[in-house]
Amino acid sequence: MTTNTNTDTMRAISQDTLGEPDVLREVERERPEPGVGQILVAVHAAGVNPTDWQHRRLGLFLGEPPFTLGWDVSGVVEAVGLGVSLFQPGDEVFGMLPYPYGAGAYAEYVTGPVRAFAAKPAALSHVEAAALPMVALVAWQTLVDTAHVRPGQRVLVLGAAGGVGHVAVQLAKARGAYVIGTASADKRDFLRGLGVDEVIDYRSADVAKEAHDIDVVLDLVGGADRLRSLDTLRPGGVLVSSLPVDFDEVTERAAELGVRATNIVVEHDQAGMVGIAALAEAARLRPHVAGTYPLAQAAKAHTDAEAGRATGKLVLTARR
User: Fold this and answer.
1) Same domain, yes or no: 81 and 148
2) Smallest Cα–Cα separation from 273: which of 153, 179, 133, 167?
3) How many domains, in total, are found in the chain?
4) Does residue 229 belong to any structural domain of this protein?
């Protein structure tokens, strides 16, 4: 893996059509310049998230190609735009580009609003830091901002061993909650190592019968388990979903049961990133990186991620 030595251009991963991973290709393009209120970041690592391959296949919010995917970034500030005072060239930062329209992290350089970033925790490598922003912000915005998880509450995380889930359980534990997670039986030891109090094997057990008196359900999987998990909530409890689709039936059932159901679309959020960074510095939050790939192998990263072979996060590296 090499770094482009031409200061006017950069390597990036682009696609000209929607489709399977092989539509992703390495291109050379002009290096961007930061605008007003923006910083230019030399990307050291970029996280891979499910929304990346969903956009690759379907376009979703980004519409028709060409475009460059990726929202998670960790790197070093290369230049700052007019009005930027929070960071200076040479600062190490990490963050999530504005979702959904700010994609572009699969590149050697990227620009973004200064308040999409926070100082990278010294306790994390760039690879670890790039694995965090989107999944940690989903966890923060569901559990902290929306559900207001408090010490002693019982939190049920559906899909606890996934990219968001394994971060969410750590965040809930850091806030003093009793955490129950659903996962396959082979992920039990992994989740126990993160501090999860109970693990429910979703393949062999009925979550609605195994979990009870739940204050907060975090839904990361959708489908039948999301609907059935409403029966685990105590009166006044809340289900928060990161999947804001097919939700009408959920809200109707929640109203019948006297509980609340809501969902979010993740937003870039410097206050959330600062809180996440503080937990990482205190060794209370750490992403599990299942694998790294050089930028040019973005297609392979997508192939492996979609196959469900990874526990935790996959990360692209843009520099040595």
Assistant:
1) no
2) 133
3) 2
4) yes
Let me know if residue 246 belongs to a domain. Answer: yes
Separation of first and last alpha carbons in the chain: 7
| Domain, as residue range, for 207 | 135-263
**pLDDT tens by residue, 192-212:** 999 999 999 999 999 999 999
Is 169 domain-assigned? yes
Is residue 198 helix, strand or coil?
strand
User: Do residues 125 and 209 share a domain?
Assistant: no
Cβ neighbour number for residue 42 with a 10 Å cutoff: 19
Cα 166–Cα 172–Cα 176 angle in degrees, nearest 5? 140
Q: What is the CATH number of the domain that holds 200?
A: 3.40.50.720
CATH number at residue 31: 3.90.180.10
Q: pTM, whole model, 2 decimals? A: 0.95
- The secondary structure element, H or E, covering residue 234 is strand 233-241
In 3D, which of 87, 63, 90 has the Cα closest to residue 78? 90
φ, ψ of residue 146 in degrees (nearest 5)? -100, -50
How many whole angstroms separate alpha carbon 239 and alpha carbon 193? 25
Q: Is residue 275 a part of any domain in this protein? A: no
Say yes or no: 124 and 152 in one domain. no
pLDDT of residue 6: 56
Token output for 320? 């040595």
Q: What integer is the mean pLDDT of 23-40? A: 98
Helix 270-281 / helix 163-174 crossing angle, nearest 10 deg: 70
What's the CA gap between 189 and 71, in Å, rounded?
30
Q: Is 231 exposed, middle or buried (0-12, 13-18, 19+ CB in 10 A)?
A: middle
Cβ-based neighbours of 145, under 8 Å, separated by 6 or more: 272
